[in-house]
Design a protein that fits this description.
This protein is α/β, with parallel strands linked by helices. Helices cover 47% and strands 16% of the residues. A hairpin with a 2-residue loop joins strand 6 (124-127) and strand 7.
């Protein structure tokens, strides 16, 4: 593993116990300039992780608690009129940051979600007639609470597709929870130190781009994506009726980039089929639209992805 990445992970472990999948997802998002959607019940250190990551890299971070009465101006900012000198000024919203925690994003109405969508895709904010470019790096970590049903606005597929990964966060193990309980109650958590600069992060991003992918593996990744759209063509007739829509072209782009980042995090300068297998579920689970029959049977997108990976021949 890269020495700088190792230092960063060690620093994060001071504040976050366990939750390796969420930490690794955030690191892949940072290295690939992608956004992360996290699904899990409250209290699983999502806010703590973002705060720790921002301190360890010396980045700004902000948190927005999404609610049904939120307005687009509450997150992007607004034009303010000053009656004393009859002038307008721009008040920037909390989106102007490096790491943004969009907490319970599915509680926000459609107008707020669409405002966030422009920022995520275009990396810019338009207020009145002015457009502001966001500073790099810019990463949105959005959370969804799976147990809430009231006051929730389901994210449309077009917005879900903008997230590079969807990570399912589970509860900690008993031993980890015991450690969390002791450290939190006695305030034993160490102070996070900055171990990586923005310039060093950009250098790491360039190193990830240089990670080699063999042409056969490139074709293998495209086949995984196409198999979610045309399963029968790959001998997957048994799952064809469970899929309404397969993954979009953004999925193949994100699978390509994240496989490189995963290889880099493992200390390799080349991608292996294992790297693709490690990231495939996170990349695809929010991009496959299940049929009504599949949902009625309780079939999950993860089961579809597993069937695809198990059926396609590995190069």
């Amino acid at each position: 593993m890269n020495v700088q990445i190792n230092k960063l992970k060690k620093e994060l472990s001071k504040a976050v116990i366990g939750q390796e999948s969420m930490i690794e997802g955030l690191l892949i998002g940072l290295l690939c300039d992608g956004h992360i959607l996290v699904e899990g019940v409250p209290g699983l250190a999502k806010t703590t992780t973002i705060n720790a990551l921002s301190k360890a890299i010396g980045l700004d971070s902000k948190r927005i608690q999404f609610t049904p009465d939120l307005l687009p101006s509450d997150i992007i900012g607004a034009q303010i009129y000053n009656p004393q000198d009859h002038t307008f000024s721009i008040k920037k919203g909390p989106l102007f940051t490096h790491l943004l925690l969009a907490d319970e994003i599915n509680r926000a109405p459609a107008k707020v979600q669409s405002a966030l969508l422009e920022v995520m895709q275009e990396r810019q904010v338009t207020i009145a007639e002015e457009t502001f470019k966001l500073e790099s790096p810019f990463l949105v970590m959005a959370t969804q609470n799976p147990i809430e049903q009231e006051g929730v606005y389901t994210l449309p597929e077009a917005q879900l597709d903008r997230f590079m990964m969807k990570i399912i966060v589970q509860h900690n193990s008993e031993e980890e929870e015991l450690e969390i309980m002791r450290k939190t109650a006695n305030k034993y958590f160490d102070e996070i130190q900055a171990v990586l600069s923005v310039q060093e992060l950009r250098a790491l991003q360039e190193e990830v781009k240089k990670v080699h992918i063999d042409e056969e593996l490139e074709r293998y990744m495209v086949q995984i994506i196409v198999a979610t759209r045309e399963p029968a063509r790959f001998g997957l007739e048994s799952i064809a009726e469970n899929i309404m829509f397969g993954a979009s072209p953004r999925a193949s782009i994100d699978l390509y980039k994240s496989a490189k980042a995963k290889a880099f995090l493992r200390g390799n300068d080349f991608v292996t089929p294992a790297d693709i297998g490690y990231v495939a579920h996170n990349i695809l689970r929010h991009r496959i639209v299940l049929s009504y029959e599949a949902r009625a049977k309780g079939i999950t997108a993860d089961e579809i992805i597993s069937a695809v990976i198990e059926t396609l021949p590995i190069p």
